[in-house]
Amino acid sequence: MLKWIEPTILKNIIIDVASALHYLHHQCSTPMIHCDIKPQNILLDEDLTAHLSDFGLVRLVPGFSNAPEPHLFSSFGVMGTIGYAAPEYGMGSQVSILGDMYSVGILMLEIFTGRRPTDTWFQASSSLHHFVETALPEKVMEILDKTAFHGEMMSKPTNEE
Predict the structure, then answer these.
(1) Domains of the chain by range and CATH?
(2) Is residue 150 within 8 Å of 6, Cβ to Cβ?
């Protein structure tokens, strides 16, 4: 977990990952779906710029369009990482950029709560996503990982300000 990194850098890491995925999904000559976004596949350089790594599960999507084409989006052999892979992949759904977006969302929830999606705290009936969803909007400050922000949590604005 990235507990020692200041909030601005955490924000920049998220932006860097989102930018890398935008490039893979929309700017490559042959679009790619990464299929394995997780903290272990994000490398930081000496300037703390995040870089996406481990393209072992990537799917090349020649002729990509928004219309699903089963012969191009086969999920056969897609494994991903438990907790980060989109739930629909486990049910045999087709690989799509939405799966990468789900993984980035879980990554962001992990950063802000300090809890891994595979944490034993979550039983079979719960998940990191459900944990955060049930806290919205009233209990958000309670579930944030205060150590990730070095105690620099934003206080609630009052009417006096």
Answers:
(1) 7-146 (1.10.510.10)
(2) yes
